[in-house]
Amino acid sequence: MKAIMLAAGVGRRLYGDEGDQPSKALLPFGGKTLLRRHIEVLRPNGVEELTIVVGYRKEEVVAEALSVAGADFVDAVENPDFRGGPIVSLWCAREVLRSGAAILFMDADVLYHPMLLERLIGSRHENCFLLDRDIEPGEDPVRLCIRDASPVDFGKVVEGDFDMIGEWPGFLRLSPRVAARVADATETYIERGEIGVTYEEAVRDVLVDEPPGTFGYEDITGIPWIEIDFPSDLLRAEKQILPRILARPAPARGQGFA
Q: What is the pTM of this model?
């Protein structure tokens, strides 16, 4: 399995656009950057290679990754248009998506308990979303919609009747075939010049076009995690989520957090 991590963005919603802030991938929690925490989960769980899509402060991000894991594990792909839409970053990783390997897709700006990724990597579903039933209020969370025990829709704005709607933390497992389809869908947006859309749009296109049952999901409700987009997220990560991560060992597989 190969991992693709998007770490190119400026973090405007967190910092503004001054240009002197650190990459969100380098935010420290408990003496470790987010990037170091990611790598320390990936390597023991069978991920063979990590491709990081970089842009803003790319030298610092790459240097941190190499200091943790070395060039035999880490590869960097540059997104020169990193101030554009995030779909451009995913498009920059299209060769990896089409490499014939199973793919673990991940955002760099998430703090989480290692059990979250272990649950995804160890899933019986070769195409798998994560779902947290404790969805945050508001328009920002990316929603995963379940009907008849399968994901059927995905995005920040969804319509229809579903058995369950949960929040997606930003991690996705893809089979080689479906990963290649995501690359194709992403490239379609780029070719049309629609670079301002989110990468979730390309993933959704593949989800709704595939036969029911192609995708599954793992329920990670109760496992501590937070995506860091706004100053309030950073404060909550430091004051609430990190203490829960440090205080609780990983539960046995098949068990969640209370």
A: 0.92
